[in-house]
């Protein structure tokens, strides 16, 4: 029996389990082989894994007293504790429509069709217009939905805290709501789009893990749309509470407590450099943990646990670093609700406050922080060939040169007079 099998026969004739043997070669070779698949997964939800078969002990006479044990059910179970069953509804079953019964008889050319060969869809496999649209937009729609769900939970928890003057929640509870909101969103969308839900994460994933740049742009657009959707829904749900708290405090909406919930901003006593590096550090820790959890040569969590761990991590980072700036650590989290607040009439000055904080804080600091977190992890631990840190120098120079040439072509700029690719990569004149 080959060594690639998962079990061996021992001397007594019983099967004994065999430990997993990694592929031969270096860790770099293993990462390259894994990265050469047809469908690479850039997911924050972790690699998919099937539940192992039950290995529980069964007594010698157990089935005599439990004759139904282990028998398959003859009906599906719509359980919230396991994957839902896949069924065909009665109206969709073959034979429900007259044309189905006609097809079961004779075709248009008079030949009898073979039993069991039923084709109820169109030639391209799409049964209706929306299934065709969803096929091409499934990943962006997942990012939009996930960002919307995560931010609705976080924004509503924060608005609840501020509009109730602390009666319905606390800073700790809103931090936990943000973390678990993103946890739920990753569980919802992680298997489809990867559950990035953060432009900074998508950009860092593209830079250090080979996530396609074109898809990265689409993901960011979907995430921003999701943030705008969530901001609008949260504002509508808490509109009455916002008006009530503003009336009781006799201040305008854009200066009331709700403004601290909708948008992020550094405290008045926080120096701009401190605010920048607060966001920078938080994003670095978050994405550094993301790439660590996704590194199968390190200590990846068990199946289904990665989103849970990330939810806890987001909560902890907001608790530890969120006081100075409001705990953004996500470009979309600030931009979407800020735009909604401006559309609600809070004033365009929201985009000019704190020297345009929304640009140099949630965008510049968070993106650079995520890039830095991945860089530090790759320099210290990661050995995979998909990271630029581990490129051979010649290939790194060649890749940068090719990217620069392609970018100038896309922008319609005249190409620079330069050496050929190989000369550029080797550094020869």
UniProtKB/TrEMBL annotation:
GO terms for cellular component: plasma membrane. CDD domains: MIP (cd00333). Residues 1-17, 110-119 have a biased composition (Polar residues). Residues 97-106 have a biased composition (Basic and acidic residues). It comes from the Eukaryota. Residues 1-59, 88-124 are annotated as: Disordered. It is a multi-pass membrane protein. The chain crosses the membrane at residues 141-163, 175-195, 216-238, 269-293, 305-323. It is found in: Membrane. Keywords: Membrane, Repeat, Transmembrane, Transmembrane helix, Transport. GO terms for molecular function: glycerol channel activity; water channel activity. Belongs to the MIP/aquaporin (TC 1.A.8) family. NCBIfam families: MIP (TIGR00861). This is Major intrinsic protein.
């Amino acid at each position: 029996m080959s060594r690639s099998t998962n079990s061996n026969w021992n001397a007594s004739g019983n099967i004994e389990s065999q430990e997993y043997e990694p592929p031969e070669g270096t860790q770099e070779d293993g990462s390259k082989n894994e990265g050469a698949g047809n469908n690479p997964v850039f997911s924050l939800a972790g690699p998919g894994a099937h539940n192992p078969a039950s290995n529980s002990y069964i007594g010698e006479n157990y089935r005599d007293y439990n004759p139904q044990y282990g028998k398959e059910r003859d009906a599906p179970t719509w359980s919230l504790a396991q994957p839902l069953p896949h069924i065909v509804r009665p109206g969709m079953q073959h034979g429900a429509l007259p044309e189905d019964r006609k097809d079961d008889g004779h075709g248009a050319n008079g030949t009898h069709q073979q039993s069991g060969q039923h084709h109820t869809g169109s030639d391209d496999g799409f049964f209706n217009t929306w299934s065709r649209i969803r096929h091409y937009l499934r990943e962006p729609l997942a990012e939009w939905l996930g960002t919307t769900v995560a931010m609705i939970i976080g924004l509503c928890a924060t608005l609840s805290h501020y509009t109730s003057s602390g009666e319905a929640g606390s800073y700790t509870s809103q931090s936990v709501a943000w973390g678990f909101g993103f946890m739920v969103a990753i569980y919802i969308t992680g298997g489809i789009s990867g559950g990035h839900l953060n432009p900074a994460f998508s950009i860092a994933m593209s830079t250090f893990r080979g996530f396609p740049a074109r898809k990265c742009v689409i993901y960011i657009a979907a995430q921003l749309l999701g943030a705008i959707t969530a901001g609008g829904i949260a504002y509508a749900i808490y509109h009455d509470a916002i008006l009530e708290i503003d009336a009781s405090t006799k201040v305008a909406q854009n200066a009331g407590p709700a403004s601290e919930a909708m948008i992020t901003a550094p405290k008045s006593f926080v120096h701009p450099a401190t605010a920048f590096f607060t966001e920078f550090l938080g994003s670095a820790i978050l994405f550094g943990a993301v790439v660590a959890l996704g590194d199968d040569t390190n200590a990846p969590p068990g199946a289904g646990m990665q989103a849970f761990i990330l939810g806890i991590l987001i909560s902890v980072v907001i608790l530890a670093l969120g006081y100075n700036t409001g705990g953004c650590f996500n470009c979309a989290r600030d931009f979407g609700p800020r735009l909604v607040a401006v559309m609600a009439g809070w004033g365009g000055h929201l985009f000019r406050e704190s020297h345009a904080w929304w640009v140099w804080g949630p965008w510049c600091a968070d993106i650079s922080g995520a890039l830095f977190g991945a860089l530090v992890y790759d320099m210290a631990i990661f050995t995979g060939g998909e990271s630029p840190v581990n490129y051979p120098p010649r290939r790194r120079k060649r890749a940068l040169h090719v990217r620069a040439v392609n970018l100038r072509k896309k922008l319609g700029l005249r190409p620079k007079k330069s050496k050929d690719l190989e000369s550029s990569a080797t550094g020869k004149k």
